[in-house]
Amino acid sequence: MPAAALTDRFPELGADELIESLVPPPRFGEARFGTYLPNPDEPSQAAAVQACSAFAARIGEGSAKKSRLRSLFGGGAAAPAGPMGLYLDGGFGVGKTHLLASTWHEAPGPKAYGTFVELTHLVGALGFGEAVRRLSAHRLLAIDEFELDDPGDTTLVSRLLQELTDAGVHVAATSNTLPDKLGEGRFAADDFLREIQALSRRFTVVRVDGPDYRHRGLPDAPPPVGDEELAASAAAHEGSTLDEFGALADHLARLHPSRYGKLLNGVSRVHLARVTPAPDQNVGLRLVAFADRLYDRAIPVVVSGVPLPELFGEEMVNGGYRKKYLRAVSRLTALARDAVSAPPAAR
Fold first, then answer.
1. Engineering a disulfide at 271: which of 21, 141, 144, 234 sits with its beta carbon 3.0 to 4.6 angstroms away?
2. Domain boundaries, position 120
3. pLDDT, tens only, 185-227
4. Contact indicator for 323, 185 with CB cutoff of 8 Å
5. Distance in angstroms (rounded) separating the CA atoms of residues 36 and 47
C-alpha cells in the first residue's frame, strides 16, 4: 500500500475543539521541572526553573485566597498588583518550552496552553468577546512562541492580555525576543510602541541563556536521500506520509497554521520529496509553523532534494525572522536525526 499524503487531508477545528485542544503537545505532555536538566555552565537555567516553580506556586496561592474571599464576601477578589505574567526570553534550544509546559503542569486548573498562532486563531474563530469570556475562567494561560508579526496582532494581543490579566488570569509566555522589542525588524514597531510597552509591563522577564541543547556534541543533519530511498522508507514505516515538497507548501497555504497540528494526527514519519529553498517569506513562515508542529509531536522527517540547513536562503535568515528560521532548522535537524536512529516498523 502506498504511503498516505498530507495533501489529501483537510482538517477542521470547531470552537469547542479549539478550547479543548489547549494543552501541551505530546512531546511536552510529561514535562516537569524535575525532568529539566539545567546546563551547569549556564546558571540562568537553574534560576529559570526556580522562577517558574515559584510562579506556578503563586498561582495556586492566589487561587486559594480568591476562593476564601469569595466564600466570605460572595464575590471575586481583585487581581493582585504587579505583573501577572512570566516571560521566558532566550535563544532557541535552551528548554523554554519545557519550562513553560512544566509551569502549566504544576499550576492549578482550569488552565490553557497554546502557541501564539493558536491563540490568535482562537480569537478569530470565537470572536474577541467570547474568547475573553472563555479564557477568563482560567487561572493560567501559557503561550509558546510569542511573536508579533504584524500591527494587527499587536493590537489584538495587547487588548486580550489586558482583559485577561485584569480578570485575574496569570500568563506565562516564551519567546526569542524581549517583550519591549517585539515586532522589531518586521513592521513599523515605533508606530505601535504604546501597545508594545503595555504588553511588556504585564510580564516579569526571566532570561534563559545557553547553547542549543539539541545539537550539543551531535553531528549535523543527515544528508538528503534519493527519491527511491525516500519511497522505500515511507513503505517501511507504518503511519508514514509521502509528499512532494512543492505540493505540500501549496497545501499549507490553504490551511490556517492552527490546523497544522491536526494535519499530523496519527502520522509516525513525514517524507518530503524534492525539497527546495523556500521561495519567499510567506512560504518560509508557514514552513516554520509546520516544523514546530512536527517537533511538538516528535515526528521524524526524511527528505530528498536540498539539505535541511539550506531550506531558508541567506537573505531570509539575515532578515527580521532570523530567530524563527534558525529555530526551524534546529528542530528539523533533530527530527532528521531521529529518522536515522529509529528502527522501521513492519507494515
1. 234
2. 31-211
3. 443 444 444 565 676 778 888 999 988 776 665 567 789 999 9
4. no
5. 12
